[in-house]
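Q: My labmate handed me this sequence with no annotations at all. I'd like to see what the chain might look like in three dimensions before we decide whether it's worth expressing. Could you predict it?
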Amino acid sequence: QVQVEESGGGLVQSGGSLRLSCAASGDIFEINTMGWYRQVLGKKRDLVATITTSGRTVHADSVKGRFTISRDNDKSTIDLAMNNLKPEDTAVYYCNARIAPYGQGPGGRIVPTPTRDFWGQGTQVTVSS
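A: Here is what I predict for the chain of 129 residues:
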């Protein structure tokens, strides 16, 4: 089994800061790109930022200069430092990890299986004006 768990989030005033963390654990052969997405009720889930194993990052235009994604490959974790938060940043934030998990192969051997997306349960970020 593979688990992806977020922590952090909460309520903050406009202009404030928060830090989100995400950890992947379990029967993992390889973790590829990890990232953060956010979703407002009734709307689609949008990309916030992603980071590859080599540290290459992508940030959405709406958060550039305010949010920074980082990664610790040894610990299988990513963080999202969020500064100068705005009311429009209010959303549920989800961690995503593209992971090749271990699974059962021929003859019952434990082998790597194809990479697929794993999601955390989400953490609420609320920014008051």
